[in-house]
Amino acid sequence: MKTKVVIELSDFLLKVSVGKKLAVQSLPGTDADIISEYLGKILKQNKCSKDIDLYVVLNRNKITVRRVDLPSQDPKEIEQMLGLYLMRQIPYHKEEVCWAYQNLGFDGISSSHIILAVALKNIFKNIVSAFISVNILPESMLMSSQGLLHYVEDACRDKSALQNSYMILDIDTNYSDLVLVHNKKLGSSVVIAQGAAQLKTDQEKERFTIELKQALSALSNEIPNAKCEKLFLTGASNQYLILVEGVLAKDFNLKAQYLTSKEYDNLVSGDIKDVSMSAVLGFGLQVAKDDIKFVVPELQIKKEMKSKVQQLMILGVALFYILISLGAIALVKLIQQQFYSARLKSKAVILSKDAKELDDITNKLKIAKQYIDPKSSVLTLLYELNRITPDSITITNYNWEWQKNFSFRGYAEQIPDILSFTNTLSSSEYFKGAQNRYTRRRKLKDKDVVDFEIVVK
User: Fold this and answer.
1) Cα separation, 150 vs 258, whole angstroms
2) Run of H or E including 191
3) Residue 307, helix vs strand vs coil
4) Per-residue model confidence as pLDDT tens digits over 379-401
5) Which strand (E) or helix (H) includes residue 52?
6) What CATH fold (topology level) applies to the domain 378-456?
7) pTM for this predicted structure
8) By C-alpha distance, which of 120, 124, 117, 22 is closest to 60?
9) Where are the alpha helices (DSSP H) in 294-333?
10) What's the DSSP call for residue 390?
11) Is 102 helix (H, G, I), strand (E, B) or coil?
């Protein structure tokens, strides 16, 4: 049976759960080599072989979370709508982020409620490099907020308190996570900038109190029909129970309760303080099918390659045993067997050469096809676009994918110039179906301009 290992990387801390054993390791840096070195040591100390199920938890303060209502129940339509939402609402290019979502269900009238989680791809860079170095690939990249749900569900003895909506406040070293749970799912989540390391002075405690009040008010308005009666404190929040109870008693109708576990108590009884292990413990207990899971392209490619290698190894072993069986059956005809084996080997060599040549030809044809057809060539499109673009239009960005959409962005001084340009494009042989996706005014130096994006389907 595989050993379940959950790892959370925070600022200069490596948190690990091996089964129910917890470990926290301070890191001298966040480079991939340092992470892989200390990770290897912890796995070795806990006698973990490479036959493990590894899960990586991403800190909530590194993730942007949005609650989105979409007028559809179809998963494909929802993904398309979320892609458009990302382009319009997130201040990054779609190519710069990695995103995942959880469908909370249809309201029975018009909309599906979605929790969207977005993280910059460069956050995953060191994580991916570190695990590739130790030749262990994670099963999933998870969000810490949902680990808190699993932790509370296990640590809370009074399960009736979990039937209705409730909140969780988890205080970690450098940040706090306030989570709203509704219908046993993550309803929403807000990050508070202060963590246990900051809550050492009265000034920081006052700032924390103000931000906690704002976060509680924001979550209360997020889901109007979620009537919360309890707030569960986890992580390092036991030190600030009185502070939180003061906020709740004064402005909110919530009762506070601190939840802990035997494993966490054993950890903090030593030198480890001001660290939350709630998310690691939660995912160590359970990883639900509908939990938000980030798909990192680099890891996905590595997994597929590893799977292919395993399949080839199985195929190779199977072929080996088949050859042995054939050899045993044909032992009395040794000369014929040798001749047959030689023929098989020669055919295999010939076929491998032919297959390699065919693959090379196919790849070359695919590359050449993008440029042979003048109507679909990007060079032709760029030439025609530059030829018919008037002086009133300035193009700043192009985006072209073969056999897919061609789009570009730019700006003009007046909207009529953009509309006229769009009509000109639509009447062109190469840009039929051109549509203006959006226009937006902004200030450019001393004059107003109108940004636009045009898509050619």
Assistant:
1) 15
2) strand 185-192
3) helix
4) 888 888 888 999 899 999 988 87
5) strand 52-58
6) Threonyl-tRNA Synthetase; Chain A, domain 2 (3.30.980)
7) 0.64
8) 117
9) 297-329
10) -
11) strand
